[in-house]
Specification:
By secondary structure, this protein is α/β, with parallel strands linked by helices. 32% of the residues lie in helices and 26% in strands.
């Protein structure tokens, strides 16, 4: 083969690769949809409609694209779900149109208990949230990595929105635009610009970006699939049984089919997550963030009302997604204003329902930044730290407090911190830091009560547990990958089965690459959610995180029941418990179908 021929073939294959990566063929999808519709029986609810409905697993590793029929979906009009009392239960379906529908509305009914025994009960419509899964352009590694690849643009299903027009996606130019609703009129800002044009530092504190509080009508275009996400908040106190309701689809004013919802409410509430190796020890779930009253006041020029509104919404969102502990990064030293902010922040944390311990309680890395204890500044720091501990105990009712040592410190930094750590320990605080077991354990393990490692193996956990200390995980991977199944596993049963004490990942949302995934050549935006002026917009990976912690809660319940059965003295009960524990141990958490698990 000559060089010219080889070059032609190489160009041909590369162009084919790029087409496969970004080319959309809605015409081919229309043909496939029509072929599927032709197979429908006469009694199918979709026989005479302009679209088909595919029910799909919500937390799937499959990247759902607008021109590909779901390989794991089924043409159906039934959404069958299962959940415990108090659980947020996700479900999903896709509408695949072969004709244009200019305006489609989705109306939800309450879920009514239909079980033959027991009392009547209702799950109201306020507990049923429906959103559109917005597909937009992200870097070529967007589905499975936090490292960036801005040389490629890949469509990624990610955002969960009530108003699909909040983001405008240009499929031909491969660009994203974010709507900002200024008083003089709405504008769309370019949020997929390269780093030489946009550094990604979008001012979410000031720019009036907001989603609708409820699902707005959507548009269906021929061959362009649209995925919907349903979240049912099961009431904490409700009778178990089968609940039924429906979603009415109204296309351009006409009834166009119904999706039946069937929810089985299980006869128990999920417990707080506990560790795999010891049911007496909590499994911690926290996440690095910049969500504090201090941060929001600084960014809003001291607007207390706006800062509190934003923080309340963020704290509520964190708790509803199974963050049980709060990480507070804000103040270094007290003055009258800082103390006021600190106290108010603690009160908001208490109102949101976070559990102990409190991480990063008072000051980030203070024990390293300040000079030796003979200096006036350092003595001031210790006095303020003492006062902070007293305020925490007074407001939150506990003294389980971790002071942050330093982020990924090297040997020199670790050695410099030791005196500060000892002084803080004398005051009643505990110390945690990020780092690796290999370097931290032999050098400062005796003084580091909690380590957050980019690891997830039992060998590391065993070392820290020997000292009575705790270990959590981050960066396995960092936040960023949109694949909800990956996030669910890595924050859930993978860590749990590795005998870790928690997940403490980086980050709730990025302050530097917030809405533009292409603003850096090295990393993608570390976003579980996307911030708006007064709240956040959820993502499918964030739903995966919530499910991962729920998996641990189910496992905690299983182990608790097994523990009781083991001491019952009844052979059948003991055997059943041991079988359950054996199954939990040999279950392959990296591969198993977690919905089945």
């Amino acid at each position: 083969m000559g060089k010219k021929t080889a070059a032609v073939l190489l160009t041909f294959f590369l162009s084919g690769y790029l087409f496969a990566e970004t080319g959309l063929r809605f015409d081919l999808n229309v043909k496939k949809i029509q072929e599927e519709a032709a197979k429908l029986g006469p009694d199918s609810p979709w026989k005479n409609q302009s679209f088909l409905c595919y029910v799909v697993p919500a937390l799937s590793p499959i990247r759902r694209l607008p021109d590909c029929l779901p390989p794991d979906g089924r043409i159906d009009d039934r959404l069958i779900l299962v959940g415990a009392r108090g659980e947020f239960v996700p479900g999903s379906f896709m509408l695949t149109p072969w004709q244009k529908v200019a305006r489609l509305e989705v109306k939800v009914s309450p879920l009514i208990r239909v079980s033959p025994d027991g009392p009547k009960a209702i799950i109201p419509t306020e507990n049923i949230d429906i959103r559109v899964v917005k597909v937009w352009w992200q870097t070529g590694t967007g589905w499975g990595s936090y490292f960036g690849d801005p040389t490629r643009r890949q469509l990624i299903p990610e955002l969960l929105v009530h108003d699909e027009n909040l983001i405008r996606v240009d499929l031909n130019k491969r660009e994203n635009y974010l709507r900002v609703d200024y008083p003089e009129g709405s504008q769309y800002l370019w949020v997929s610009a390269p780093p030489e044009v946009d550094d990604g530092r979008f001012d979410h504190h000031r720019e009036p970006v907001a989603d609708s509080p409820v699902l707005l009508p959507v548009q269906l275009l021929p061959g362009e699939n649209k995925q919907f996400w349903v979240t049912i908040k099961v009431p904490e106190k409700i009778v178990s049984g089968i609940y039924q309701g429906k979603l009415n689809l109204i296309a351009e004013g006409a009834d166009s089919g119904t999706i039946q919802i069937q929810l089985k409410v299980l006869p128990f509430n999920l417990p707080e997550p506990r560790t795999y190796y010891d049911l007496q020890k909590p499994f911690y779930s926290f996440m690095y963030n910049d969500c504090s009253l201090y941060t929001h006041l600084e960014a809003t020029a001291g607007d207390w009302n706006l800062a509190e509104q934003k923080l309340r919404a963020e704290l509520k969102n964190m708790r509803e997604h199974n963050l049980y502990q709060y990480l507070q990064r804000s103040i270094r030293l007290f003055d009258d204003r800082n103390k006021k902010i600190f106290i108010r922040n603690l009160k908001l944390v208490k109102e949101a329902g976070f559990l102990p311990p409190l991480f990063d309680a008072f000051v980030s890395s203070g024990s390293f930044w300040f000079p030796p204890e003979t200096t006036e500044t350092y003595q001031k720091y210790l006095q303020d730290a003492t006062e902070a501990l007293k305020l925490i105990e007074k407001i939150l009712g506990h003294r389980e407090v971790y002071f942050f040592g330093y982020d990924e410190p090297g040997r020199k930094t670790l050695l410099a911190e030791r005196q500060g750590w000892k002084d803080l320990t004398r005051l009643g605080a505990r110390i945690y830091s990020t780092g690796r077991t290999k370097s931290h354990f032999p050098l400062v393990g005796y003084a580091e009560h909690f380590v957050n490692c980019p690891e997830n193996n039992r060998e590391s956990a065993e070392k820290w547990h020997l000292l009575g200390h705790r270990i959590a995980s981050y960066a396995c991977p960092h936040t960023g990958p949109e694949n909800p199944d990956l996030v669910r596993r890595r924050h859930g049963l993978v860590l749990y089965k590795a005998n870790f004490d928690g997940t403490g990942n980086y980050k709730y949302y990025d302050q530097h690459k917030i809405w533009n995934d292409f603003a850096s050549t090295q990393f993608r935006g570390f976003n579980m959610v996307y911030p708006t002026r007064t709240g956040v917009i959820d993502t499918i990976q964030w739903e995966g995180f919530r499910a991962g912690i729920d998996d641990i809660r189910y496992a905690t319940l299983l182990k608790s029941l097994a523990e009781k059965a083991m001491v019952s003295g009844k052979v059948e009960a003991v055997y059943t418990a041991k079988k359950a524990l054996t199954w939990l141990e040999i279950m392959e958490e990296e591969k198993a179908d977690l919905d089945w698990v």
